[in-house]
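Trying the structure run again after the queue cleared.
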Amino acid sequence: MSRRTRALIALVLTGGLLAACSSPEETEPREGSSAAAASYPVSVTHKLGTTTLEKAPERIVALSDADLDALLLLGVQPVGIYQSLQEGGVNPWAKSKLTSNPKQLAVGENGVDPEEVAALNPDLVLAGGDYYVDTLYRGIGELVPTTAYESGPFEDPWQTTLRQVAKLLGKSEQGEQIIKDVQAKVDGVKTQYPGLAGKTFSISQVFEAGTIGVLRSDKDVTVKAFNDFGMKLAPGVAALPGDEFAVTLSMEKVATIDADAVMVYCTEPQLQTALEGNTLFKNTPAVKRGGYLAFDVGTFMALRNPSPLSIPYFIDNTMPSVAKAAGA
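Done. Tokens:
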């Protein structure tokens, strides 16, 4: 799979869409950006090294949903954020928590521009959930304390990222309470929809005509999120060969994505029209029995980079449809 394809299915993408979003210029540190009383220095270790803070950070840049939403729930406002594909560059689940006007950093083919990050004069860059952190780390990691994944790109569950952020802010106890509260919400799904237990799912993205990309790895963070609801990856998808978290299939093999719930996000309306008009897709058992769900970008984004804010949003807004599609 090419890097571009990986980027597309990771939804950390295209300049055209991103360019249409606004980009506030306010970069002053926010009230509440100081950490709670804590003992410094403090360090977190991850796959790219160790991030150490000698004192409480005051100018923080957050480069993924998992990082930003953890920061906001811990009561701290950033000076810079990655620019979401959502309206205004901010995801709907984060809007009410984001009371400042941070600089929005456009995401290109290789992530955000390290020079733009450096221009914000940050004293901490949160990138545990940033798919492109490898590139960023080489550009800025030696100059500014920068976090990264502990397992692999798009493999750390939101709890891992939240614990990273909370520790660096001196708010580990508050972080654990947030985890407890969100986990209770997740567990509530199993109670409300007991029939979901063992139901299979597939989640795919169409970004060009004639192909479909499907998540195949049980290490992927989106797959893990659905596992938390009691669902499991469709056997046909899980059996696809390769080491990557996603596989691109030709439409001749679209039946591979069949599952109790088949969820697909198409990046363009014409791609969705073509998919839904494809005879092989229409004859997929899940589609014929009503097990297909077409996701819009917001719905897809809510679980493509799960966060302690996006997961409750997904549960409230989409989980009833997923349960219905799966026959639960």
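The radius of gyration is 20 Å. Worth checking whether this holds up in the mutant runs.
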